[in-house]
Amino acid sequence: MLALGMEYDAGTWKVAVWDEDRAADLHTFPHMGDVWQFLEDLLTLHPATPIVLPSGYGVPITRAGDLLDRDIATMTVDRPGSVVDDLAMFLTEARRRTLRAYCIPAATLLPSVPPHRKLRRADLGTSDVLCAAAWALHFQSTTGRALIACDFILLHAATGTIRLLALKAG
Length: 170
Description:
Elements lengths: L1 E8 L2 E8 L2 E8 L2 H14 L5 E2 L5 E6 L5 H8 L7 H13 L4 E5 L9 H4 L8 H16 L9 E7 L2 E7 L3
Parallel strand pairs: 1-4, 4-6
Antiparallel strand pairs: 1-2, 2-3, 5-6, 7-8
Helix pairs in contact: 2-3
């Protein structure tokens, strides 16, 4: 089964198509219109493909069609004239279209993150960092390792940012 994950960072759209547990296709797009064209082409061939949308600072797992304006503002830290305007426009369009698409939480929304770690922190890791951690956990599980034995620190480097996410007992 195919699945698709997306990320938006500093004006660049990144799309990964997964076939079961391997990356089948990786693309980078400079323009939002190119992303929509790619999605239309892919969904013509594989209409049931689930999509994880770029979710920035995240919301609880939410179907694209159920996004509220305040959800989009929360995910993009809406500042008029900033790069996140493109992400907000993309999410607004995704809400309008009939897609099997979802937004996912950022690390700060996870119940496993203790409240004291959330104090005075705007960003503990965006949804893309959370996806990278989930992939690392999945990879560890393919080696036969129990999730309870998965303690590691994930280094996630992106344009202008470096994130460290510590995982303990999966």
